[in-house]
Design brief:
- By secondary structure, this protein is of the alpha/beta class.
- It has 15 helices and 12 strands.
């Protein structure tokens, strides 16, 4: 199992691994990640062994860090070769991220069945490179034939962690967990596992206005914005209305507590918000490859199931968008009704089905 760099690659991999454990007796699962990245911490916390490769991504702009890439690539290919030789896998599954490239490449060259997951509407570099060598590509969107061999594609949707899909936590329990008022509406801010500077700036600029609506804020800032966000809350004496977290590990609690969500439009965030059926405002990362986050969000926006605000307009427009989604209002009810149409509750099982088929065919 390989995938990492961000939660959008790691958590789907863990979801697939958990489902494989339930379906297959005596299955042995080994994760392969990139040294120094968050998977080296998050995967062991989920109960799985992980080995690290010395690998990183290519910087899209001219950057001296790219000078080390050839050496890292050779090192990671050799490391992946040793892992495949010693572990002798029956299948290799990648969910994207730096480490999945070398691992799946080596596995495919050694005739190990390979499956890769592409959750975005525009494929990442790793998936595009591997598309010609892997056996199966599981995707979240229709129309991916323009990027991949149609005979390799299966539309499965995005795998969601079981703690999200089988969430039985009540709103009151969740709000108590975060020390929020039980009765006042809650706005959840999530910028992905690493935070989102553009979203954080827009929230900081609108803190007083949002709280004046009687809305509480549960705010995941990421490491880089935590101190600044905490200072803004203190300066405006909003400690009773705003809970600031660098990272929220209990996203099941966070979603249960929330009435409205403001988020980036990465594939996993979008899939989780659909799964929990929350009215959402998406602020796509403008620098994402081929603007794929905007394309992800538009699948919901065009079905009147979410709201989109561009990052460059977020400071000026976010407050009005939030105001429209106050619980019980017309817009909020419309989004909650329409988002149900986009649910893919069996995504993880569908991917496991494809993996088992590849093993049986071998």
């Amino acid at each position: 199992m390989s995938g990492g760099g961000t939660g959008g690659h790691i958590f789907p991999a863990i979801a697939i691994a958990d489902a494989l454990k339930k379906r297959l007796k005596d299955v042995e699962i080994l994760f392969v990640g990139a040294k120094g990245r968050m998977e080296m911490e998050k995967v062991p916390q989920s109960g799985y062994e992980i080995k690290g490769l010395w690998i990183s991504g290519i910087q899209r702009k001219l950057d001296k860090r790219n000078l080390m890439f050839p050496f890292k690539l050779i090192s990671s290919l050799l490391g992946a070769s040793r892992i495949v030789k010693s572990f002798k896998p029956d299948i290799a599954i990648g969910t994207g991220g730096y480490a999945s490239g070398p691992l799946l490449f080596i596995a495919s060259k050694r005739k190990v069945p390979t499956l890769i997951l592409e959750q975005n509407s525009y494929p990442g570099i790793t998936t595009k490179i591997l598309a010609g060598t892997v056996n199966k590509i599981c995707v979240a969107y229709d129309g991916m034939e323009k990027y991949f061999d149609k005979d390799k594609i299966t539309v499965t949707g995005s795998p969601i962690r079981e703690l999200i899909t089988n969430n039985k936590i009540t709103q009151i329990e969740a709000r108590n967990f975060f020390e929020l008022n039980e009765k006042s509406p809650v706005l959840l801010i999530i910028g992905g596992s690493q935070g989102a500077l553009g979203i954080n700036r827009a929230i900081t600029a609108n803190l007083n206005n949002i709280c004046s609506l009687g809305i509480q804020i549960l705010w995941q800032t990421g490491m880089s914005s935590f101190t600044e966000a905490s200072k803004a809350v203190e300066e405006n004496a909003l400690q009773k209305s705003v809970v600031v977290k660098e990272f929220i590990s209990r996203m099941d609690m966070a979603y249960s507590a929330a009435d409205i969500v403001v988020s980036r439009a990465g594939a996993i965030a979008l899939a989780e918000i659909v799964a929990v059926e929350k009215p959402a405002i998406f602020i796509p990362l403008p620098s994402a490859a081929e603007d794929h986050q905007t394309k992800n969000a538009l699948t919901l926006v065009e079905g009147n199931a979410a709201v989109l605000v561009k990052e460059k307009e977020a400071v000026a427009e976010l407050f009005e968008a939030i105001k429209q989604l106050i619980p019980g209002g017309k817009k909020s009810l419309e989004l909650k009704k329409n988002i149900k149409k986009f649910k893919t509750p069996n995504a993880t099982q569908s991917i496991v089905d494809e993996a088992i088929k590849l093993i049986e065919e071998k």
